[in-house]
Amino acid sequence: MGQEGAQKRGPSTLPTSTAPNGGARSARSLLRGGAGNRQIHKTLNNIKITILCGLVTILVLRGTIGFGSLSSDNELENQAMIEETNRILAEIRSDKDPDDPEDNQNQPTINLNDTYTLGAKISNWDEERSLWLSRNQDFPNTVNGKARILLVTGSQPTPCDNAIGDHYLLKSIKNKIDYCRIHGIEIAYNMAHLDKELSGYWAKLPLIRRLMLSHPEVEWIWWMDSDALFTDMVFELPLSKYKDHNMVIHGYPDLLFNQKSWIALNTGSFLFRNCQWSLDLLDDWAPMGPRGPVREEAGKILTANLKGRPAFEADDQSALIYLLVTKTEWMSKVFVENSYFLHGYWAGLVDRYEEMMEKYHPGLGDERWPFVTHFVGCKPCGSYGDYPVQRCLSSMERAFNFADNQVLKLYGFRHRGLLSPKIKRIRNETATPLQYVDQFDIRHSAQETSN
Amino acid sequence: MGQEGAQKRGPSTLPTSTAPNGGARSARSLLRGGAGNRQIHKTLNNIKITILCGLVTILVLRGTIGFGSLSSDNELENQAMIEETNRILAEIRSDKDPDDPEDNQNQPTINLNDTYTLGAKISNWDEERSLWLSRNQDFPNTVNGKARILLVTGSQPTPCDNAIGDHYLLKSIKNKIDYCRIHGIEIAYNMAHLDKELSGYWAKLPLIRRLMLSHPEVEWIWWMDSDALFTDMVFELPLSKYKDHNMVIHGYPDLLFNQKSWIALNTGSFLFRNCQWSLDLLDDWAPMGPRGPVREEAGKILTANLKGRPAFEADDQSALIYLLVTKTEWMSKVFVENSYFLHGYWAGLVDRYEEMMEKYHPGLGDERWPFVTHFVGCKPCGSYGDYPVQRCLSSMERAFNFADNQVLKLYGFRHRGLLSPKIKRIRNETATPLQYVDQFDIRHSAQETSN
What we know:
The structure is a homodimer of 451-residue chains.
Chain A: H1 3-7, H2 21-31, H3 35-65, H4 73-93, H5 125-135, E1 142-143, E2 146-147, E3 149-154, H6 163-183, E4 186-190, H7 204-214, E5 220-224, E6 228-230, E7 247-251, H8 253-258, E8 265-273, H9 276-285, H10 293-305, H11 316-326, E9 334-337, H12 353-359, E10 372-374, H13 389-408, E11 413-415, E12 423-425, H14 434-440, H15 442-450
Parallel strand pairs in A: 3-4, 3-5, 7-9
Antiparallel strand pairs in A: 1-2, 5-8, 6-10, 7-8, 11-12
Membrane topology (chains A, B): Single-pass type II membrane protein
Catalytic activity (chains A, B): Transfers an alpha-D-xylosyl residue from UDP-D-xylose to a glucose residue in xyloglucan, forming an alpha-(1->6)-D-xylosyl-D-glucose linkage
Keywords (chains A, B): Glycoprotein, Glycosyltransferase, Golgi apparatus, Membrane, Signal-anchor, Transferase, Transmembrane, Transmembrane helix
């Protein structure tokens, strides 16, 4: 990363204040000449000071903008490339369309008394969808006997503020690609803002709704944050538990109903059935989301009513908790799951991976071998996280490699250590590789389990 | 990206050379007093110069290291975070295991006279695979009547040298996820070096072999570079054309056999059937790959024999071309495809996207609407590409959005412009969304085409 070079230059060396000898001797002789000489002496002093300041100016210029021969060709080239890159990024980030009235709005036009809706009201989705499925037999809502799931995740369309952020977004999606390939799940990676008002963490609401309505063949929409990694590549969702429910979310009923804690549920990984009930819940959930005064005011209500909640604008998680504890009729179709880590808070898990590998095995999904490790608060894409950068980055690296080992096992490799990008063989090459396919392909084990 | 601030500071303002009036008057009176006064006057001058230099020193320090109140807390915090990140990156990148003899080898132990092999020799793969498929009916080599394809791509396990590189790797894999979801293709994203000797562009060979042997259910392995994007989301591979072939690669027979040009074929996007023939070709292809003297020497042979090839170590593409023109018996099963852009060289395509949108439509796959746009030579992940950075980045952004528009159409959106991350509606919200599913879901159109 070439940007470091320019920043780490030390202060420039200043020239000494000693005037050249020749100049001083001449001034002294002149002085002996009287008043006229005094004038010349003063003039020479001024010249000395001017030269001194001029030299210092040059050094300052060299120190700050690399003027002169201090920068090597490579550094200049790197510098030019970085500046060019930054210029393009700024252009992409600051995209403004002068003809688009939306870009010229500074204040949202949401009336605080309005009920915000995500789109045109739909009331017959179950019937419409059922009819569509019966007419489109080539697009069933099951795959190999299992309900069709669409995993949805995403990130901002512009480069991360912190360069390392994009690298971990990349590793995170690779991790999800691996899990989903093994388990026959489709992925939608979103990088577009569908609704200007529902920005940030609220953006998942219009996205989920849009995907439900555009993919009637999908039975479950599974939202998963970009900072959540699969760490149990064998574990499968026990969908039969949820046949009478429409939403599955990790949390604790006691924290939810008794304590009304703002972390009673976690919206970093949850499932919505594609049905009318879900569309209605989304509509009931959205009103605290529109950015600006609505979200600010809503934040105050949430802080006042939810235990432990700091003061900040309304977030989707707090809003959902508040919705469910105030309109408890929703709860009949919500499954609050904590028998496995549909969401697993990273801090208590990442240091135990070696112990897990020693004592347990994939497939458990719980505290012995967490299904999902979720890096809440790390925010590698942003400028400021809630935890030290080193702790977060090395922990994410460990989680990634812990999961990757489970994928590489089929191919005969594992990482040298949980912090290492390098891999090593765990078995010799063979002229009969199919024995290992039967033994190590996770899909085959899953097949045997269900038979 | 907070690094910009420190670099763009201008030269510090230097104080003027005028001494304070009070000091000058006192000096003059003293001078009238004679020689003793002259000494005092000189001393005062020295003090003036010292103060001046001291002030300038402080300004230089503030300008270069942010000493004092010029740097806000935010900048210092950013700086600390960047340094911490870089330290961790260096640690991850420089991972060395002192107990591993492999890490201590400086020279490869390949004998130039040996024939390099990718692994244990397998001679009965067709029979073994066929038997396995018959015993594992749950893992057929077809999906919805189409041959099962595994798209393989990947990138280095460590962060890119250029920060923007990871962002475009992320966009590139999202692009591939979209195409593969629409067309029922599985993805394997590789971030591991399976073979130390076959590094860099050669790494795809051991990877392809390993995946073939570990996934007998896969009929075609489709390698695609990370710098290649799908730009026709409708076009499907005409697999029936290849029923008698085992390799499909973009290229030009004239360039290949008559001119022996080093760019006659492109290994940035090609298909291998999962069969014995492919294993044998990989074995015949690999020997020029091992890094060090073998690859260097092989590079000289390739440069001497292939038209237009610059002098550099052996690359996989040149080696394949050389193999096919010298051992022409391989050609009976190689399909050199140029009726559509299985690989489309970006420079001649990216400026015509608007014209394409105006005149043509997705599904053509050729120069009118390229199937794949391949950013050969841009190398956004590395430090130095063959083209200006601005040209590459903005062109990749355009290609990405050109493709994304085709995906977003189902959801009712498109990008505001090909350089814009922002999207806008292309149709109004509706209470009857299923009409658009029938009309715009690409998979439904594909279904109709094949019926």
